[in-house]
């Protein structure tokens, strides 16, 4: 990448390590001349149904250096989804077209739709210079007006969003986005936001490029006085529902459910992700704004076919029989690895190695803000949580579920991270059923005649833990073992297997007893601090009302205790601190408080994952970070993946 771009538009962060040779991005020089295009598009040009390639590309398009070699056009890439709520499976493959992006190593933020940027010394202002001449998939120009519209008219609309997303708010105030000229926009925050570029590179940073003004404005009252009538005609109850169904959002299925919505992605929806769909098909974007080093327009691959399976077994059969070209999602379970390894020749694939960025394989979030006062009191009792933690036989669980490839762990950065906190990571992980029982006795949870414990109010101690079997089947197995461990100390628990949509609904409504999810923050603690304090409305499942209080600056939700408010204040300080050493010192204070409060219970350190790549699919790195912040495999640039004969 040219030094000019590195000096003005790339930020560095702690190195993940070991994955050199990533596909690189740069801007074409002024003498750029368009190269080749897909044969089907060339035919449309010849037939007068599409403008020539030079008119569809920017004057200086983004140039991608292929990972292995310049590719050839053609082919349908096959990948699997699970059920009707696996929308992030599409996002991870296709939807990485934000203003900036991560490099393959997960070490630097690079230019994307913004070719460069400037940041003020106090980190309150970010000025982005867009690539001139980029077009939406329908040929309409992408300009500063789209970015301003997306934030000022959509994301900051309180009828669409109950609170401004955390990435776009600092000190309780939302960002202000203003147009400088057609290709320059300025983001101004109320206080320093030193982490904004890193957050902008994650999936949750995609809002600035998500809503085309020329299309989505028709679904807002500000631009359409007849919107309520339009909503009624469309068969929905409100204009907000119509907006969501037509324009989607970052993490909802309707993002991929409307074939008419223009996009900046390499492929556009042809067969949508709607209820009952057995597949989702996306075809190449004729106006995609990236080219390879020879000037050939990307993507190389004609279309992506996401087959929708109802169970992992079907996915595995498709992989083994050679019907999937790249897959790690849903099949990356240790129990599957021997089968996948043994069938490499039969399925004609090679293995993909995933480097975990998470800290915890399975984090248990007891609902400390439960609607039932008695349940709330029980879960809020720290000694209750501590007793349940030491009542888990982690060595047995690790041996049986994870084939011995992990170690007991609670939360916090991974052991290799410079901010690693020993107490936070290791406390209450040593199995001691007798001690756990004594602690429960002392806390007032005595055993009844059936051997199970009762609360001080006389009701039986019983709760359910929500888990999504289609997404994390290993967590179901882990919880079943935990259930047997807790039964030995007199605790009755139900493993509540539910679909992902219901999981989120229960959590968002604060209607759950407890839920599980892999604990984040192992290599990216600043980007995903949901376990350290009540930060994320969809992530900090132990106290959703507290997260709403934080993200709304106290306007919604429930006021949290002082220890939470102190961590919220410290995190705001940390993310406004550009100096990495000073930022680390502040974050360590957060980890110390979180360790003392012990709000969540972890099982074991996150283990490395894997996947498969068909042997004829090239330009695919065989080692990638495994992270939501680095939404694999998208940052590896699937637009430059190519098939060989």
Automatic annotation (TrEMBL):
InterPro entries: SBP_5, SBP_5_dom, TAT_signal. Residues 622-645 are annotated as: Disordered. Residues 1-33 form the signal peptide. The keyword Membrane does not apply. Keywords: Signal. Residues 109-521 form the Solute-binding protein family domain. Pfam families: SBP_bac_5. The keyword Cytoplasm does not apply. Belongs to the bacterial solute-binding protein 5 family. Gene3D superfamilies: Dipeptide-binding Protein, Domain 3, Periplasmic binding protein-like II. It comes from Rhizobium hidalgonense. The lineage of its organism: Bacteria, Pseudomonadati, Pseudomonadota, Alphaproteobacteria, Hyphomicrobiales. This is Peptide ABC transporter. It comes from the Bacteria. It is found in: Periplasm. PROSITE patterns: TAT. SUPFAM superfamilies: Periplasmic binding protein-like II.
């Amino acid at each position: 990448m040219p030094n000019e771009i590195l000096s003005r538009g790339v930020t560095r962060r702690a190195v993940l390590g070991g994955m050199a040779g990533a596909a690189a991005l740069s801007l074409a020089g002024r003498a750029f001349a368009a190269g080749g295009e897909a044969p089907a598009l060339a035919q449309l040009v010849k037939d007068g149904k599409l403008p020539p390639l030079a008119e569809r590309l920017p004057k200086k398009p983004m140039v991608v250096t292929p990972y292995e070699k310049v590719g050839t056009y053609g082919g349908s890439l096959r990948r699997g989804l699970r059920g009707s709520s696996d929308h992030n499976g599409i996002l991870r493959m296709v939807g990485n077209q934000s203003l900036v992006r991560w490099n393959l190593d997960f070490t630097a933020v690079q230019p994307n739709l913004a070719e460069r940027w400037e940041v003020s010394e106090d980190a309150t202002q970010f000025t982005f210079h867009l690539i001139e001449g980029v077009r939406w998939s329908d040929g309409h120009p992408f300009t500063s007006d789209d970015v301003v519209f997306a934030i000022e008219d959509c994301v900051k609309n309180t009828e669409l969003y109950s609170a401004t997303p955390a990435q776009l708010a600092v000190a309780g105030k939302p960002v202000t986005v203003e147009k400088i000229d057609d290709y320059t926009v300025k983001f101004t925050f109320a206080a320093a936001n030193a982490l904004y570029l890193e957050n902008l590179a994650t999936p949750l940073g995609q809002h600035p490029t998500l809503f085309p003004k020329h299309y989505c404005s028709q679904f807002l009252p500000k631009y359409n006085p007849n919107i309520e009538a339009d909503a009624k005609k469309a068969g929905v109850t409100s204009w907000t529902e119509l907006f969501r169904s037509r324009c989607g959002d970052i993490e909802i299925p309707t993002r991929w459910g409307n074939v008419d919505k223009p996009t900046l992605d390499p492929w556009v929806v042809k067969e949508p992700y709607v209820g009952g769909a057995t597949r989702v098909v996306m075809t190449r974007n004729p106006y995609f704004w990236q080219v390879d080093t020879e000037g050939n327009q990307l993507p190389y691959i004609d279309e992506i076919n996401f087959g929708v399976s109802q169970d992992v077994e079907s996915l595995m059969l498709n992989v083994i029989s050679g019907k999937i070209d790249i897959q790690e999602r849903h099949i990356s379970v240790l129990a599957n690895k021997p089968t996948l390894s043994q069938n490499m020749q039969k399925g004609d694939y090679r293995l993909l190695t995933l480097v975990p960025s998470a800290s915890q394989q399975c984090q248990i979030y007891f609902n400390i803000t439960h609607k039932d006062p008695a349940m709330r009191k029980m879960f809020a009792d720290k000694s209750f949580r501590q007793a349940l933690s030491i009542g888990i036989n982690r060595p047995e669980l690790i041996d049986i579920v994870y084939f011995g490839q992990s170690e007991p762990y609670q939360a916090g950065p991974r052991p290799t991270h410079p901010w690693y906190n020993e107490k936070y990571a290791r406390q209450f992980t040593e199995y001691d059923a007798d001690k756990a029982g004594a602690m429960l006795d002392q806390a007032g949870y005595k055993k009844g005649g059936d051997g199970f414990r009762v609360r001080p109010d006389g009701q039986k101690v019983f709760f359910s833990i929500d888990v999504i079997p289609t997404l994390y089947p290993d967590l179901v197995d882990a919880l079943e073992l935990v259930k047997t461990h807790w039964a030995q100390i007199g605790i009755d628990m139900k493993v509540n297997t539910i679909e992902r949509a219901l999981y989120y609904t229960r959590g968002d409504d604060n209607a759950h007893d407890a839920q599980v999810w892999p604990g984040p923050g192992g290599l990216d603690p600043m980007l995903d601090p949901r376990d350290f304090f009540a930060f994320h409305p969809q992530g900090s499942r132990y106290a959703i009302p507290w997260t709403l209080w934080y993200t709304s600056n106290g306007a919604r939700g429930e006021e949290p205790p002082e220890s939470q408010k102190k961590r919220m204040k410290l995190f705001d300080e940390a993310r406004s601190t550009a100096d990495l050493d000073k930022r680390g010192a502040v974050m360590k204070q957060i980890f110390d408080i979180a360790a003392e409060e012990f709000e969540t219970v972890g099982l074991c350190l996150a283990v490395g994952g894997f996947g498969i790549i068909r042997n004829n699919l090239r330009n695919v790195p065989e080692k990638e970070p495994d992270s939501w912040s680095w939404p694999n495999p998208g940052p590896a640039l699937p637009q430059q993946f190519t098939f060989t004969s």
